[in-house]
């Protein structure tokens, strides 16, 4: 069954993932990813956590944004950062494909709870921020 891992539709872009893993191998960036897993954060909050300069943070965030791990948007004078969930799911699945024997790798393709987890996370974020908008059923379209 090991041969199936190398079919055209399952090929891994090794160069791309090597760059992603290299960026993620920095402990500070890994902690930023962990922080962003709880939801969008202002650059000012990240700066407070690490006690680093704004140019240092900008450099780290640019590396992650360029790889698609993190999304950025400007709000006022500050940047707001969030994880790109689709990219992070692909990273997770790729790590699994690389580490889990071929017969079990299919277990990583289960997206059973993804939509429910994202909806719950959004509700938690809204309650923390005081946002009063509602989450409509069917708003979150994931394949």
UniProtKB/TrEMBL annotation:
Q: What stretch or stretches form a coiled coil here?
A: none
**Which SMART domains did the record assign?**
HTH_ARSR (SM00418)
Classification via InterPro entries = ArsR-like_HTH, HTH_ArsR_DNA-bd_dom, HTH_MetalResp_TranReg, WH-like_DNA-bd_sf, WH_DNA-bd_sf
Ranges for domain HTH arsR-type come to 9-103
- What are the protein's GO molecular function terms? DNA binding; DNA-binding transcription factor activity
Iron-sulfur is among the record's keywords: no
Keyword field: DNA-binding, Transcription, Transcription regulation
Which NCBIfam families does the UniProt record give?
HTH_metalloreg (NF033788)
Instruction: State what protein this is by name.
Output: Transcriptional regulator, ArsR family
């Amino acid at each position: 069954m090991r041969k199936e891992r190398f079919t055209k539709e399952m090929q891994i872009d090794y160069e791309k993932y090597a760059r992603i893993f290299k960026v993620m191998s920095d402990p500070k960036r890994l902690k930023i990813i962990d922080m962003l897993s709880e939801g969008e954060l202002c650059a000012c909050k990240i700066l407070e956590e690490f006690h680093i300069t704004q140019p240092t943070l900008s450099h780290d965030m640019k590396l992650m944004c360029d790889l698609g791990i993190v999304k950025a948007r400007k709000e006022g004078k500050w940047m707001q950062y969030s994880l790109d969930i689709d990219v992070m799911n692909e990273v997770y699945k790729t790590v699994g494909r690389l580490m889990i024997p071929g017969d079990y790798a299919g277990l990583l393709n289960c997206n059973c709870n993804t939509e429910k987890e994202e909806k719950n996370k959004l509700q938690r974020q809204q309650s923390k921020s005081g946002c009063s908008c509602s989450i409509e059923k069917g708003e979150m379209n994931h394949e």
